[in-house]
Structures are given as structure tokens and as C-alpha cells.
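Supplementary Note 2. Why include the ligand at all?

Several targets in our set were suspected to adopt different conformations when bound, so apo predictions alone were not considered sufficient. For every target with a known small-molecule partner we therefore ran a joint prediction. The input for adenosine-5'-diphosphate is given below.
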Amino acid sequence: MSHHYLKFDHVHYTYPNGYRALKDISFTLHHGDKAALIGTNGSGKSTLLLHTNGLLLPQSGRIDVGGVPISKQTLPLVRRTVGLVFQNPDDQLFMPTIEEDVAFGPMNMNLPPDEVNKRVQQALKDVGASEWRERAAHQLSGGQKRCASIATVLSMGPDILVMDEPTANLDAKARRQLIRLIQGFSHTCLIATHDIRMVIEVCNRVLVLDEGQLIADGDSQTVLQTPEVIEKTGIETEQFTPTLVL
Ligand SMILES: Nc1ncnc2c1ncn2[C@@H]1O[C@H](COP(=O)(O)OP(=O)(O)O)[C@@H](O)[C@H]1O
Ligand SMILES: [Mg+2]
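The joint prediction is reproduced in C-alpha cell form.
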């Protein structure tokens, strides 16, 4: 098994108010997998993603990133491997300018200034954000903020890229750019999304959450045509017709 795998092994998580958000989740992503995580609002997608880099720790079960079990002790190593783009970009942008936000991660990795600068310019270019690099987050639209938040993670060069609803708020051009970027990313991706057309285009694999339970996990075509998945997620199957896949 390559060192870029992500393994959930019987993971449970209950919020402090007693809500059981994840129930016995087990799956393994292998190097190069592009996996979608789908499910209705409140099914547990964001909660699951917050476990991939240790922002939430499982109350029982275990999560392994390339052979390293996630725990308080391994968090620095895990966070260099797993890059998580939050559902809300405002959680990721806190420096005076976008450029400084994108430089924050690589600077904390103690990379030489030339390398930091190279990564920052490349990440900004990859998401089409170079033009507004000197703006503050509050001067950007929702879609621009989303692109900037993705750049803050790309600049760290993650082996596993995890994104929470990355195409939300994006216009057609930015969405297309993001799809190309994901297609060109050679490592592992896990993407929570309602954008089924993107899933069909970029994901080889689909995981389905329903009320905190993983009800399906398999290749995209098979999972998206499973009657239980269609019923529980409400996905519209007309999206599958080839004419609609750009
Ligand atoms: N901090 C929290 N405290 C209590 N319950 C929460 C908290 N965050 C999320 N939840 C609940 O956990 C469930 C899963 O939420 P979430 O993972 O955000 O779902 P999704 O991303 O699929 O929309 C929801 O019912 C939500 O209300
Ligand atoms: Mg969510």
C-alpha cells in the first residue's frame, strides 16, 4: 500500500450535545483515488472531513494517514500530509491580504523564502486568484474567497487534498478551472459535494453518507445508479445523460 492512503476504521463521533454525527464509518482511499462524499445537508459530510486532518478526533475507532494513526501527537505530521479546504472560506482567510494567507502555510513549514514565493504564485495562478492577491478577504466575492481558500491549501503541497463543497458559489469559469485542477492533481482527493456533474467528470469513486452512516462506497457509475442512493440523496438522474456532461 502506498504512503498516500487514508483509512477510517470503525469511526464514531458524537457532538457534545449528544448528536451522533458519525456512526461506524470505515473506508480506505488509495493513492490517486478521486473520491466524492455525497449526502443530504446534515448527513455528516463536514464532520467526516474534519476528522481527516485531526480537527476532530474520533471518540472510538481509528484513522490512519499513510500508516500514521491520527492522534494529538501526530497532528503536525498529519497536517503536512492532509490539506483541508473548509466549507466556509472565512474560516481559512485571516491575514491582511490573500497573498499572505496563501504564504502562511509554507512559511510555517520553514521553507526558504524563494520556495515560499514560488509556491504562493503557483497556487494563486492555479485557482485564478493572481489578480486579487493584494486584496483583503472582505473585499472579495464569495466565489473569489472560495478560490483563495483553496490556494491556501494548495501552497502547502498536500499528498491528500480534502475539500468541503469546493464548487459552491463558483461561476462557470472558476468551476471549470477547479475541475481541471482536481483532474491534474496526481495524489488522493476527497471532495464533499452536491455537484453531481462534477462528480461524474472527476471522481472514480463515490462514498454516500445518510444520517451519519456510510450507505454506499464504490465506483461512481455503480453507486450513482443504486436505487437506495438515488432515494436517500435525492440526486437527479437526468444529470447522468452524456449530453449534459461537459
Ligand atoms: N458543533 C455541532 N454541535 C452539534 N451538532 C452539530 C455540530 N455541527 C454539526 N452538527 C450536526 O451534525 C450533523 C452533521 O452535520 P455536518 O457534518 O455539518 O453535515 P453536512 O456537512 O453533511 O451538511 C447535523 O445534524 C448537524 O446539525
Ligand atoms: Mg457540510
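The first strand starts at residue 6 and ends at 14. The mean pLDDT is 93. Comparable summaries for the other entries are listed in the accompanying table.
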